[in-house]
Design brief:
Structural class: alpha+beta
Radius of gyration: 20 Å
Helix content: 10-25%
Largest sheet: 9 strands, mixed
Distance between the termini: 22 Å
Length: 432
């Protein structure tokens, strides 16, 4: 990637883009691939339950909602969305080739009802969930953020954000069903029944390998699994977070999907500081609870919904507060060659507004301060005097500061605390 800078468009240009997009929505919605959209009134409405307005084919949809008592998702009007139905659990080979499908309601079984390998550490591969390619169009008009999704590219401004892997667009990505664990061969895994990669002993310096596991060590484990292996982060996690906002018509991910293990911390290494061994969670694609100490899942991934361990995301760095990003999963811990967003973070804050970076998605903005109950409801931690490698989602000690939009930009790459985990992302095998 060549280093570039993002420049803020003139208001007239933004208004023209808005008008063009609204015309597209009114007149060009294809029946085979409708355009779904939303506008988030970021500055004028900080209430997470009312600031999202539906646009496009979903204008009159009922949003999804989680019953925290039964842990079941009411899909509202979204049950038949083909993109969502394509989100299925699988066992795949080392390089992302799908070996077989899992029962979506009971991962211990294959789709045909026979026993699966979801907890078999000797299986030559991993338990992953399919995320089908989708095209995204995103921009801001003033402080209103517009986001549209379509399963086909209806115009050049719809981009496969998160599916471009070093210049090759993939038909799907495979996200981890379980927190990343490092096996005896040094490979990053997504398998039930294994301790996460930094919690074998609950310490950064005396874990099972006897070596602190920072970003470089995590990357080594990922690449030992597959030469095409990636950190679960970057533009795909932004796309998924926005889809979650759209599905629930809310910017409070913990209230919408569950609070996971956000407050399970105990100050006792023998108890792994409140973290738990990866386990199979039933209930289908989503499972939510509000006890603050249970595994949850979003899109069949406990990593997205549980907030047990921060997840290393080296595709965003903050160099003395200046945010640089990798739009195609190019990896460089200094940020050299990354896209210079032109945006800075200076201090800890709750996100109420976002900057939009083409090809990457939303990044933190300090324009308006939120709280754990307003705006995006998630916290960003900042150290603007270092080159910080991003962490995402939150950990079991951070409570209501956690969420799909939570970021930690206050650690250097070598930091190896027990709560700084990493998980595996695999692209679909590239066509020859």
């Amino acid at each position: 990637m060549t280093e570039n800078k993002v420049f803020i468009a003139e208001q007239e240009t933004l208004l023209e883009v808005k008008e063009q997009t609204e015309k597209l929505i009114r007149n060009l919605i294809p029946t085979d691939a409708p355009i779904y959209g939303m506008v988030i009134h970021e500055a004028s409405d900080l209430n997470p339950a009312t600031r999202v307005e539906y646009l496009g084919a979903n204008k009159d949809f009922k949003p999804m909602s989680m019953n925290m008592a039964t842990h079941a998702m009411d899909y509202g009007s979204w049950a038949d969305w083909s993109w969502l139905k394509a989100n299925v659990p699988v066992m795949c080979g080392w390089d992302g080739e799908i070996k077989y499908y899992l029962n979506p309601d009971d991962y211990t079984k294959k789709a045909d009802g026979t026993a699966s390998d979801v907890s078999n550490a000797n299986f030559a591969g991993n338990a992953m969930a399919v995320i089908k390619k989708i095209y995204k169009k995103e921009y801001k008009v003033g402080s209103d953020r517009y986001v549209y999704f379509c399963e086909r590219q209806v115009d050049p401004d719809f981009q496969p954000v998160g599916f471009n892997v070093k210049g090759k667009v993939r038909d799907y990505m495979l996200i981890p069903m379980f927190y990343g664990s490092i096996d005896g061969n040094g490979r990053m895994r997504s398998i039930a029944g294994q301790w996460s990669c930094l919690t074998a002993s609950g310490s950064s310096s005396d874990n099972s390998s006897g070596t602190a596991i920072g970003t470089t060590e995590q990357n080594t484990a990922i690449l030992k699994t597959s030469a095409s292996g990636l950190f679960f982060g970057g533009p795909l996690t932004n796309t998924l977070a926005d889809i979650c906002v759209m599905l629930t018509r809310s910017t409070d991910s913990q209230s919408s999907f569950g609070s996971g293990m956000c407050s399970s911390y105990v100050e006792d290494k023998a108890q792994h500081y409140g973290t738990q061994i990866n386990k199979v969670v039933g209930g289908g694609r989503f499972y939510g609870s509000d006890d603050n100490k249970s595994f949850n899942k979003i899109f069949h991934s406990a990593v997205l919904g549980s907030y047990m361990l921060w997840q290393r995301d080296p595709y965003m760095v903050a160099v003395n507060g200046r945010i640089k990003v990798s739009t195609d999963y190019t990896y460089n811990l200094s940020g050299d060659g990354y896209l210079d967003t032109g945006c800075n973070v200076t201090a800890n804050h709750y996100n109420a507004t976002m900057h939009v970076v083409k090809g990457f998605g939303a990044i933190p903005s300090e324009e308006i301060e939120g709280t754990s109950a307003t705006g995006y409801c998630d916290h960003t931690w900042v150290n603007a005097t270092i080159t910080a490698v991003s962490l995402r989602f939150g950990g079991c000690i951070d409570g209501l500061g956690d969420g799909l939009w939570a970021r930690a930009l206050h650690n250097v790459a070598a930091d190896a605390w027990w709560h700084d985990g990493a998980s595996l992302l695999l692209p679909a095998p590239a066509a020859a």
